[in-house]
């Protein structure tokens, strides 16, 4: 698979990770900035949270690890939470905006 195909593959799995507070997956919320699979089977995810004090952060990270470990190519997962660029509603997909009633 190419790098883009691997990224799409990982993003597809991450769509199963639902933000417990908002009820929408983290990909459509625009929380995931990048996903790559390194040669040794390490899935490296770069993402943010809706706010710095998000109490669901540890739960979301645990759910990411659980979901990606189901993929045969993934041996381990590293989640890097970044605050720059900051998350905004503009990151959300049309689906997420409709689901949450955001214009």
Automatic annotation (TrEMBL):
<dbReference type="InterPro" id="IPR034904">
    <property type="entry name" value="FSCA_dom_sf"/>
</dbReference>
<feature type="domain" description="MIP18 family-like">
    <location>
        <begin position="10"/>
        <end position="80"/>
    </location>
</feature>
<protein>
    <submittedName>
        <fullName>Phenylacetic acid degradation protein PaaD</fullName>
    </submittedName>
</protein>
<dbReference type="Pfam" id="PF01883">
    <property type="entry name" value="FeS_assembly_P"/>
</dbReference>
<dbReference type="InterPro" id="IPR052339">
    <property type="entry name" value="Fe-S_Maturation_MIP18"/>
</dbReference>
<dbReference type="InterPro" id="IPR002744">
    <property type="entry name" value="MIP18-like"/>
</dbReference>
């Amino acid at each position: 698979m190419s790098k883009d195909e691997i990224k799409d593959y990982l993003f597809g799995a991450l769509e199963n990770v639902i933000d417990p507070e908002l009820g929408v997956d983290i990909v459509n919320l625009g929380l995931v900035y990048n996903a790559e699979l390194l040669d040794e089977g390490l899935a490296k995810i770069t993402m943010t949270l809706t706010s710095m004090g998000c109490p669901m952060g540890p739960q979301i990270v645990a759910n990411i690890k659980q979901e990606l470990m189901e993929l045969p190519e993934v041996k381990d997962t590293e989640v890097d939470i970044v605050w720059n660029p900051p998350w905004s509603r503009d990151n959300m997909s049309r689906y997420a905006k409709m689901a949450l009633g955001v214009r």
